[in-house]
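Q: Here's a chain of 479 amino acids. Please give me its 3D structure as tokens.
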Amino acid sequence: MEALSGGEWVTTGEWIDVHDPADVRTPIARIPALSVKDVTRAYDHAERGFAVWKRTSPFERARILTEAARLIRERLEEIAADVTAENGKTLAEARGETGKAADFLDYYAGLARQGYGTLLHDARPDTRTHTQREPIGVILVISPWNDPLITPARKLAPLLAAGNAAVFKPATETPLSGLHFARALHDAGLPAGVLNVVTGRTAELEEALLDDPRIVGITFTGSNAVGNRIRRRLADRNVRFQGELGGKNASAVLKDADLPAAAKAVVAASFGQAGQRCTATSRVIVEQPVYEEFARLLVTEVEALTIGRGTDPATTLCPLSSPKQRDSVLADLNKAIEQGATVLTGGGADTEGDREHGCYVRPTVLGDVTPEMAIWRDEVFGPVLAVRAVDDFAQAVEAVNDSVYGLAAAVFTRDLGSAYRFADEAECGQVAVNHPTPGWDVHLPFGGFHDSGTGYKEQGEEVLRFSTRVKTVAIHFGA
């Protein structure tokens, strides 16, 4: 596939292979390895594109986003097939991601139509004062490999609806999905230069991507290490930074919970997309009286999962997204066992049959976990779940909050008081009651506390705080 720059699909003489994590031996596609000069040209185009787009009628912006949503739904099977091919997730998960990407475009098309501002009283006579929100300029979008279509949609739809321009760098491992999103917008009539897609090796392009003086905002989803490096690089510049970073999400199962329902919800939260979701549950805290029963139910649910290719309709647990990620998860798992954790089910790589050349890790539940273990504290981003017993509700909340992260948490209980107390006391940006930790719709503000994020949320109207600036206008209408 080609990259998008200035409204044209461009290539270079050098290419990067894209591999299927279900079988890494043969490339499934290739993308252009753009150069530093190509990045600078992309910013040139974005600067010119912004000058046009910010003056484009909000109704025209909305029309283009709505048409792009229609095209994505029309191409759903083709796009979902590429999401599965490059990422490994099941076709069911890929179809859901594709549909949700279209939902983001539709939602922000609606917001573009209604305008944003507030009418204010003014102490001066014969004066009407209001605020209006305006686009901020050229924004750099950096998206990860785990949700290669929905994350670009979550970021690009609102900033484009508000009138900004973008330079978009998809993950090198999974660029096809983001290029599909860009093609839908291009085919829907997005003016040249408003969206530019830079493909290539991030390490070679990082300086050009981050240091261009025309950047007014950067939105990034990825690791804390990279997010903190970006923050340090921006320390002396007036550039907004929106970061969706790491998580160590916990689910608390109280003794009055519907245990079978809780087990199903936790397994869905932990092992969907092979645990490669920022909101995946990776820790479970269970009140002692029901620990043994819940652990048994959990193991039963996990052992019912079917490992395989994402293209197989029977598959419920897909491969990890790359050999690098597989090896990282296996190293975390081995370290946990060395530190004293017990494997209740799973453990290790799965190389049986046609999985020999894929990035498969068996779904794993660990018991005998203590708060001092790395598996309890470090983000693993794979199909590994740590389970721990506590004495009561207070200890459960304490265990949930025992983390440098604060993205998502869930509680399973039949008691309304416990549910509200948990919602008040959990130190995270997303709290679910009798629901899995993932699953936040397009109109719901999304983002974490502490080391999981920054002050700017994504999704809903809240994201406009990042992608717009507020201007106050006072108009005297008297003689």
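Q: Can you summarize the key feature?
A: The mean pLDDT is 97.
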